[in-house]
Design goal:
CATH architecture of the largest domain: Orthogonal Bundle
Shape: elongated
Low-confidence stretches: none
Number of helices: 19
Protein name: Ppx/GppA family phosphatase
Oligomer: single chain
Helix content: 40-55%
Organism: Salipaludibacillus agaradhaerens (Bacillus agaradhaerens)
Structural class: alpha/beta
Family: Belongs to the GppA/Ppx family.
Mean pLDDT: 97
Strand content: 15-25%
InterPro entries: ATPase_NBD, GppA/Ppx_hydrolase, Ppx_GppA_C, Ppx_GppA_N
CATH class of the largest domain: Mainly Alpha
Number of domains: 3
CATH superfamily of the largest domain: Hypothetical protein af1432
Largest sheet: 6 strands, mixed
Strand order of the largest sheet: 8-7-6-9-11-10
Length: 510
């Protein structure tokens, strides 16, 4: 693939963003710039439904700011899109004419269905979820979709957003009981027009700034120890609880709430109310935050059109490919580690020495592909850097708990080091789970030693016998296994400790 820089202008009703993505020759991508202007275009719509001259001036000034920045980058292509504020304005043609006349950027107005579709595309290309309900609360519209098997079944756009709900139903900083009642009645009536949403009981996935703020607030409340907001999961009770806390605060008090952006403090309540009513209508028990939204959907479409598909075949696989290229991992070597660890795990399972589920084996596979990824930063601290890297960035396709499990395995150095890493997560991980991660990490470390010279000399692993106190392990090889034999004898102690057996290793010419 030819290297390129792709820019997206997302002209929303509340904020306008300018994002630049860098795509390299290996189709790996990175967001290198993300700028926001809180334009609040919906607030510039007059009583006749037209955008005021002041509002149009805000649009042009914002685009001008982005133009100045764009000149500093060698951008291959720019796609600008406008959503509800401009789409619904009675003078939308005049606005587009002004943009065409005064800006070098080309901007198109997305239809309601297109806006909903790109949100769906972002979620299904960046999460593990085969089924779900997305809600994208903008300033002037709210898009809802229902998908199964990563395919959009229904898409709909509602004519309300956080800004317009605030303007229409809440006169003061904090809503009164009667205002709450009218607002909720309106939302219930709107959602009831979509019978395909009723009692779906699928997870609700929140897109947009209000959903992100909701997740950030909750993370601060619970002192969440893991970095990353994308795919952060909350219960429906968590959502209701936060709404209760925020609604009891004044605007000035809300502005000081950790996790809540100051520019959203006045509109967060109606936004969460919309999420609450959707959760109640669909019977969902889970709310998941998506850090990917409309502009990401636009980008994924651009990226994937070169191979004529709309979705990554496997989101998790794509994420680990991106990690491998970003950190310059030896993919052949990592694949061999995966094969060796699979050999050893299968032998241990078949001999009833350990019990691992299919999910565990999948996690072992992914952990093998990033085992000691921190070595690329500094070999002396490869374990520490590995754990830090994997717990401090979102990995699309993995839940937060899966990411933590893989971090425990891929960074494994010793039992004491594992316990040190696990200390901040003691309320998450049971002793039994930690023992399992130690076992799988020890297994990976032994297999790491069995290809320490990166020459693939070990061809097969076989358990010949086992007793209550000993396991006989035969390692079949081609070539000189001197270094592998040395490191296997050095690293086997970790697995011996987990299995409570001595491991006798015999190297046999294949």
């Amino acid at each position: 693939m030819k290297a390129q820089k792709v820019a997206i202008i997302d002209m929303g009703s509340n904020s306008v963003r300018f994002v630049i993505y860098d795509i390299n020759n290996y189709a790996c991508y990175e967001e290198i710039l993300n700028l926001k202007v809180v334009a609040r275009l919906s607030s510039h719509i007059n009583d006749h439904g037209a955008m005021t001259p002041e509002g149009i001036e805000v649009v042009l000034n914002t685009l001008n700011k982005f133009e100045v920045v764009a000149r500093k980058y060698n951008i291959t292509s720019i796609r600008g899109v406008a959503t509800a504020a401009i789409r619904n304005a009675t003078n939308s043609k005049d606005i587009m004419s002004a943009i065409h006349k005064h800006s070098s950027f080309s901007v198109e107005i997305l239809s309601e269905e297109e806006e909903a579709y790109y949100g769906f595309l972002a979620v299904t290309n960046s999460t593990h979820l085969p089924k779900g309900i997305t809600i994208d609360i903008g300033g002037g519209s709210t898009e809802v979709t229902y998908f199964e098997n990563r395919k959009a079944i229904h898409l709909h756009s509602f004519p309300f957003g956080a800004l317009t709900l605030k303007k229409q139903f809440i006169e003061t900083d904090s809503p009164s009981e009667s205002e709450w009642a009218v607002l909720r009645s309106y939302l219930q009536q709107q959602f009831s027009t979509l019978p395909w949403l009723k009692d779906k009981k699928a997870p609700v996935i929140g897109i947009g700034g209000s959903a992100r703020n909701l997740g950030l607030i909750h993370q601060n409340i619970v002192n969440y120890p893991l970095s990353g907001l994308h795919q952060y999961e909350m219960t429906s009770e968590d959502v209701f609880s936060i709404q209760g806390k925020l609604s009891s605060l004044s605007l000035k008090e809300r502005e000081k709430v950790d996790g809540l952006s100051k520019d959203r403090a006045d509109i967060i309540l109606p936004a969460i109310a919309a999420i609450e009513e959707l959760i109640l209508y669909t019977g969902s028990t889970s709310f998941i935050v998506s850090n990917k939204g409309l502009r990401d959907g636009l980008f994924y479409e651009k990226l994937l059109e070169t191979i004529d598909v709309s979705h990554f075949p496997n989101v998790t696989h794509e994420s680990f490919y991106q990690l491998a290229v970003t950190y310059q991992l030896d993919s052949t070597y990592q694949k061999r580690l995966s094969v060796l660890s699979s050999y050893l795990a299968t032998e241990l399972i078949n001999n009833k020495l350990i019990t691992l589920s299919e999910t565990d084996l999948t996690h072992l596979h992914w952990a093998s592909h990033v085992f000691y990824i921190g070595n690329t930063i500094h070999p002396e601290s490869k374990s520490q850097h590995t754990f830090y890297l994997l717990t401090n960035q979102s990995i699309n396709g993995l839940t937060h708990m899966e990411r933590l499990a893989i971090a425990f395995m891929a960074s494994f150095r010793s039992r004491s080091q594992l316990k040190l890493y696990a200390r901040p997560f003691r309320h998450w991980v049971t002793k039994e789970e930690l023992k399992k991660y130690e076992l799988m990490g020890a297994l990976l470390k032994l297999c790491y030693g069995l290809n320490i010279s990166k020459r693939d000399v070990v061809k097969r692993i076989q358990i010949d016998f086992h007793t209550e106190t000993m396991i006989g392990l035969s390692i079949y090889y081609d070539g000189d296994p001197y270094f592998e034999e040395f490191h296997a004898s050095k690293y086997k102690k970790h697995l011996e400790r987990c299995l409570k057996r001595t491991i006798s290793i015999q190297f046999i010419q294949n």
